[in-house]
Amino acid sequence: MAIERLEFEGVEGLRVGRFGSQINTTCILYRIGSTVVDTGPPNQWSVVRAFLRERAVERVVVTHHHEDHGGNLAAIGAELKPELRAPGGSIAPLARGFRLRPYQRLIWGRPGRVRPLPLPPSLPLAGGATLEPIRAPGHSSDMTCFLERERGWLFGGDLYISSRTRYLRSDESVAETIDTLGRVLELDFGTLFCSHRGPIPRGRAALRRKLDFLEELCGRVAELLDRGRSEREITRELLGREGWMRWVTLGHFSKRNLVRGCLERALRNRRDPP
Ligand SMILES: [Zn+2]
Description:
Blueprint: E1 2-8, E2 11-17, E3 26-32, E4 35-37, H1 45-52, E5 59-61, H2 67-70, H3 73-80, E6 83-86, H4 88-96, H5 102-107, E7 117-118, E8 123-124, E9 130-135, E10 144-148, E11 153-157, E12 168-169, H6 174-184, E13 191-194, E14 198-200, H7 203-226, H8 231-239, H9 244-248, E15 253-254, H10 255-271
Parallel strand pairs: 4-5, 5-6, 6-7, 11-13
Antiparallel strand pairs: 1-2, 2-3, 3-4, 8-9, 9-10, 10-11, 12-15, 13-14
This protein binds zinc ion.
The site of zinc ion has 6 residues, from loops.
């Protein structure tokens, strides 16, 4: 079931997903002319297909391999035969498949396998504009944003999602996310096209708030560590009790993962001051 169609500064978006709720069970794919960024989850294929059939698709790029972003790449390749591109680190998981937890299969479905081409330094759009891949590890090691300098657009994938993160995937890195946010904030853009929130006109300010929030949280975690608190105690004190997220995802998303990420960054910075 398609939930929403979006349009912002000539960029079209389609929000698809299975359950309407406050967690990220919907995902947006964006279309700029004949170029598509991300593909939605596999169980939304019929809606994605109808959207993509509205006009010719020449190229599809994904921001990272996760099933809600790259999930329909194989189906699109088989049916519409556009050029398929993905970050270097996404190619192996997209081609070979990757472990999906039960909640991921339920919410998103299981992606088909496909071997896309790697990303060139820039991808042409109509009218002389380009999409420039920007490496953005943290959420996943292959995460890549796409910058359009003329219009000041940043297609952020899962870099943003929320400025006040409370849960983290067990495979996300807080330290890398903070480094990436610092680097991305030096780029010249205005609008952030977030895969879950939609177009954010003041995108730089949103990413700045996220960076500030994470740095402050890391500071508070380090302070409590110095007072001898355990990871569990720090989590309880700063973020409160674990909610149902942790149980539904069998620990893949938790508050404790976020605190652990902050602790890892604090210890890294002590070992190896920035
Ligand atoms: Zn993701």
